[in-house]
Amino acid sequence: MWSLSHIANEIHTWLSNTFNPTWTQIIEMVLAGVAVIGLFAALGLVLVLMERRVAAWIQIRLGPNRVGPFGLLQSMADTLKLIVKEGLTPDGADKVMFNVAPFIAMIVAMLLMAPIAFAKDFQLWDLNIGVLFVTAISSIMVISILMAGWSSNNKYSLMGAMRSGAQIVSYELSAGLSIMTIVVLTGSLQVSDIIHSQANGWWIFKGHVPVWIAFITFIIAVTAETNRAPFDLAEAESELTAGFHTEYSGMKFALFFLAEYINVFIVCAIGATLFLGGWMPLHFGSGNAFNHAMDYIPSSIWFFGKTFLLIFLIMWFRWTFPRLRIDQLLNLEWKYLLPISMVNLLVTTAMAILGWHF
Amino acid sequence: MYRQTEIIKEAVPGSNGETGEFTINVGPQHPATHGVLHLVITLSGETIKKVEPHLGYIHRSIEKMCESLTYRQFIYVTSRMDYLSSHINNHACALCVEKGMQIEVPPRARVIRVLMDELTRIASHELWWGAMAMDLGAFTPFFHAFRERESINDIMEETCGARLTMNYMVPGGVMQDIHPNFQKRVKEFIRLYKRKIDEYDELVTGNIIFQNRMKGVGVLTPEDAVSYGCSGPVTRGSGVSSDIRKLYPYEIYDKLEFDEVLETGGDSFARYLVRIREMQQSIRIIEQLIDQIPEGDFQAKTKAVLKLPKGEFYTRVETARGELGVYIVSEGGTTPYRIKFRSPGFSNLSVLDHIARGSKIGDLVAMMGTLDLVIPDIDR
C-alpha cells in the first residue's frame, strides 16, 4: 500500500537506521517543516485557481484558461509577478508592525496545519488537545489583521481592521461552541480520537438534528472568521477599497492573500474532520460489503475530497450572496447564532448522556 | 499612557480628537463611486455625520462646447453626458431643435425613436442592477446583467453602428433606417429577457441579506424628493408621480399603454423595485410597437443648414435616471447662443447627504447605488 502513513514510516525507519535518535528527530522536524511549506504553496496555488474557476463557472465566463493547460500555471505566473513587485512601506506607517503583520498571518496559518490528519495515521502532531489548539491559535489571526490595519496609517485600513476585530472575536464564540458539540459527543479533544469515533458513521449522520445545527452554525461562523463573503467586511472592496491590506503590495500582500486561502482550507479541514469523519471512509453499520468497497478508496482522497467539498460550498457563498452590514453581522452572531449554539450544546450534552445518538 | 483620543488624533490625520469624528475621502478613485465622484465623508466610527460631494473631475464644459457647434453637430456631444442613455439625450436635443424649427417627424421615425429609447432604458437599468449588486458585495449579478445588456448592444450596433454613443437621433428623425434584422433580434431579446427577469428576482430581490440591506435604508420622504428637485425612479420610489412620458407626453407616448411605476416606501428597496418594474414596463412598450412600425420615411426633409428662430426653447424627456431638460436660447444663427441641460443626476446626487446622515458607511454605498449616479451626467 502506498499510503501516506506508509511512506512516512519508511522514511522514519530509514532515518532511525542511519542516524542516531537526536539527528533523526531534527531531520524529521526539518522534513515536516518543508512539507508544510510545500503544502502551503501548493494549496495556495490550487485554491486561488479553484476560486477563479468556480467564480467563472458561476458567472457564466471561462476564467483563467490561457497560461498552461486549463490555466493551471496562471497562479504560478501571478505569484512570480507578486514576488518581483516592490514591497512598498508607506511613509508614516509603523514600519516594524507593518512588516511583521503579514508574517504573523502566515505563521498562524502554518501552525494550524499541525493537528490536521491528512490521511490515516498521517498527522504532524496528534496532541491531546488538538481541537482546542486549533481554536486557540486561530484567534491570533485577528492580531495580525489589527496590526496591519493600525500600522498602515490609512483610515480605510483602520476601519477594516476594527470591523475585522469585532467580527472575528464574535464569531469565534459560535464556532467554538459548535466544535464543542462534537467534543461532547466524542469525549475527547484529540483529533485522532474524534476521527476514530466516526468509524461506524460520520457525526453528521449519527448526531441527528443537534449536529446538523452545529454544522450549519460552524460553516457560517468559519466563513465569518476567515473574512469571506458574505462576511468580508474587513476588506469590503466597494466600501473600504481593500480594507486592512489597502497599503500592502507585492509579496506582503500575497502573504495575506495566501493566509486567507490557507485559513479557508484549514477551517474546512476541521469541519470535515469533526462532522464528516476526516479521512474515515463512508461507513454504515459495520462489516458489510458497502463498507469494504469504500475502504478501497485511499484515506487521503477521502480527506481532501470532503475538505474541497466544503471549500466549494464556501466559494459558492462568496459568489452568490451580497455582503452584510456591520450591525447586521454582529446581530446575527449575538442575537441568533450564539443563543442557538448554546442551547444546541445543552441538547447535545443531554443526548450524549442519555446515549440517543447512534 | 496616551488617552485613546490622543492616539487617534496622532495616528489618523484629519481626525478630530475631541469628538472622535474623522473625515475620509471616498473617491475620486474608489470602487464604490463608479466614476470620478469625490465624496468627503465625516464619520463617527462607522456612522455617517455628513456627506459632501465634490464635483468637477470630469467636467468637459459640454454646454459651452455646444455653443460653437451647429444644431446638427451639438447632438453628438450630448451622447457623452449620460453615456448610458445616450439615445435619450440625443432624443431630447433633437426634440428641442424640431420644436424650434417646427419640423414634422414622420411616424416611422417616431416609433423607431421610442423603441430605441426603451431599449436604452432597459440597457441602462440592467447595468445599474449589476453595479448595485456589486456595491453590496455580490459580484455574480454584474455578469448576468451584462449578458442581457450585450444583446441590446448588439441590436444597437447593427442598426446605429455604435454600441454606447449611438448618435442615432438627428433633427427630423433618425440617421438611417433600421437594419432588416432589427425586428427579429428585438423579439428574440424580449423572449430571452422575460425568462431572465425572474432569474434576477431569484438571485437578488428575494435574497434575505439583500432585503435587510435595502429596506428602511436611505428613506426619502415625498416632500424632500420634491424640494430637492429629484426626478425619475428616485422620486417614484417615494410615491411622487414624475414620469415625463405620462405627465408631458412627447413623441407617441400618449398613445401607448404602460403604467407609471410607483412605490411608496421611499427607501432603497423601493427605488430598487421601481427600476426592476420599469424594465418590465419598457418591455411592454416595445412589445406594442415592434410589429407596428409604420412604413414611410425615417427622416423628415430638412434644410442642409438648420437655423433656429430667435427665442428660447425647452423640452424635457424621461431618461433612465429621470428628467432631462434641454434649454436652448437662440439668436437666430446656426449655432445656439446658450444651451443649458437640466440633468437628473445632479439633483439626485444632492439628496445623498440628506438621506445618508446617521446610517452606516455600508449603506451609503447602497444608497449611491439606488440613486443610480452617472458622473459624466452630473459634471457634463
Please give a structural write-up:
With 358 residues, chain A is mainly α. Chain A has one domain (88-354). In chain A, 69% of the residues lie in helices and 1% in strands. In chain A, α10 (208-225) runs antiparallel to α15 (326-354). Chain A is globular and about 65 Å long. The mean pLDDT of chain A is 84. Chain B has 380 residues and is α+β, with helices and mostly antiparallel strands. Chain B has two domains: 4-54, no CATH class; 62-379, Cytochrome-c3 Hydrogenase, chain B, CATH 1.10.645.10. Chain B is built from 16 helices and nine strands. Chain B has helices at 4-11, 62-67, 74-78, 86-101, 107-135, 140-160, 182-205, 208-214, 222-227, 233-236, 244-247, 268-289, 344-350, 352-356, 361-371, 375-379; strands at 15-16, 21-26, 38-44, 47-54, 169-170, 173-174, 311-318, 323-330, 338-342. In chain B, the strands form three sheets. Chain B has a four-stranded antiparallel beta sheet with strand order 1-2-3-4. In chain B, strands 7-8-9 form a three-stranded antiparallel beta sheet. Chain B has a two-stranded antiparallel ribbon with strand order 5-6. The model of chain B is unreliable at 1-11 (pLDDT under 50). The A-B interface holds A 55, 58-61, 150, 153, 155-156, 158-159, 163, 229-230, 232-233, 236-241, 319-328 and B 11-14, 22, 24, 30-32, 46, 133-140, 142-144, 147, 203-204, 207, 209-210, 212-213, 360-365.
Q: What key attributes describe this structure?
A:
heterodimer; A: 358 residues; mainly alpha; two-stranded antiparallel sheet; globular; B: alpha+beta; Cytochrome-c3 Hydrogenase, chain B; 16 helices; disordered N terminus
